[in-house]
Write a structure and sequence with these properties.
alpha/beta, 5 helices, 149 residues
């Protein structure tokens, strides 16, 4: 069975994230969306709220599960039996960061990282953008899956 984790803070989970998971399902038998705790980021939405929201989005997709983790990503992958990390790349800066992380994760845990390029229509969407809009009470419905609207 090909199991991948899709790690991130997902604060919030955007259409870009949703697209990466759905495209990843064509490559993997199961995807575990890992909500990591990032001590360097200030949360906008509580982690339990994000977990429940993502579960709701994928409630009809049995091959997707959601878990919160508080460890190194490679350790979380090992814990859930994953041999792959799934990541999305929007731009060159993302690629450079992800390449370095992929090398570290390969060296630390022998886990392969699979990068999917973001579709052009989602490349401008980031959780940071959505958080900023939300903080100014702007409509974020164009950037998040229907079930979050």
């Amino acid at each position: 069975m090909r199991i991948a984790i899709f790690p991130g803070s997902f604060d919030p989970f955007t259409l870009g994230h949703y697209d990466i998971v759905n495209r990843g399902l064509t490559l993997f038998d199961r995807i575990v969306i890992g909500l990591g705790r990032n001590s360097t980021k200030k949360e906008t939405f509580p982690i339990r709220e994000r977990e429940e929201a993502i579960r709701k989005i994928f409630k009809d997709e049995p091959r997707v599960e959601v878990q919160i983790y508080d460890s190194l990503t490679v350790d979380f992958a090992r814990e859930v039996g994953a041999h792959f990390i799934l990541r999305g790349v929007r731009c060159v800066a993302d690629f450079e960061y992800e390449r370095n992380m992929a090398e570290a994760n390969k060296n630390l845990g022998g886990i392969e990282t699979i990068l999917l390029y973001t579709r052009p229509e989602y490349a401008h969407i980031s959780s940071t953008l959505v958080r900023d809009l939300y903080s100014y009470n702007k409509d974020i419905s164009a950037y998040v899956p229907n079930k979050l609207r």
